[in-house]
Amino acid sequence: MSDLGADAALGYSTSRRYLNILEVAYQVFELHPFYADLGKRLVKRPKLYANDVGMAAHVANVDSWEAADASIRAGALFETWVVNELRALDELAARRSSVHFWRTSAGAEADVVVERGTAAVAIEIKASATLRWKETLGIRALRDGLGERFTLGVIAYLGDEVRVLDDRLVLAPVASLLGVTR
Fold first, then answer.
1. What would the pLDDT profile of 97-133 be if each residue is shown by its tens digit?
2. pLDDT > 90: what percent of the chain?
């Protein structure tokens, strides 16, 4: 909050009040970190997302996918859209889940961790049609740390192919994850 306030030349309390107004007006929401006793130092600050990715793009002066790509905002905007869609799908479920993110202080992360009961599913979101193996390091670190609690890891990307990467890790098109067609 201090960094956000400094960027806008505002104090901490003023920044917090403005953020609260944005939350109450359903413009933004916080995704809280997933905590599990993994013996790692975890990031404890929540991530802030826009509820309306179109408005977020407008505020960032992005009016096309090409403009997002050119300004290196494509990944953040795409992640924001997918997280919003996942939350909307969870709202429709008979039994709700807890939705979080996971990140260590060393930088290993999973964009979304959906927890229901003791089971956890991790989702890494990639605004790319290809995948580099190093992009699976964070989700594999979470899988190894959670053991049997880790049910499935999904790397959601812009490609068309579904591939099983190992016994609990798959590469899947975002469209199939969200149940949409092209």
1. 999 999 988 888 999 999 998 899 999 999 999 888 8
2. 50
User: Among positive and negative, which fits the CA dihedral 33, 170, 176, 160?
Assistant: positive
Mean pLDDT of the chain: 88
H or E stretch including 30? strand 28-31
How many of the other CB atoms lie within 10 Å of CB of 113? 26
**What b/e readout covers 130-164, taking b as 16+ CB neighbours within 10 angstroms?**
ebeeeebebbbbbbebbeeebbebbbbbebeeeee
Give the separation between CA 150 and CA 137, rounded to whole angstroms: 15
Q: Which domains, from first to last, does the chain contain? A: 1-31 (no CATH), 33-50+93-178 (3.40.1350)
Please report how many Cα atoms fall inside a 13 Å half-sphere around the Cα of residue 74, on the Cβ side.
Answer: 15
Establish how many alpha carbons lie within 13 A of residue 179's alpha carbon, considering only the half-sphere containing its beta carbon: 5
Neighbours of 127 (CB within 10 A): 20
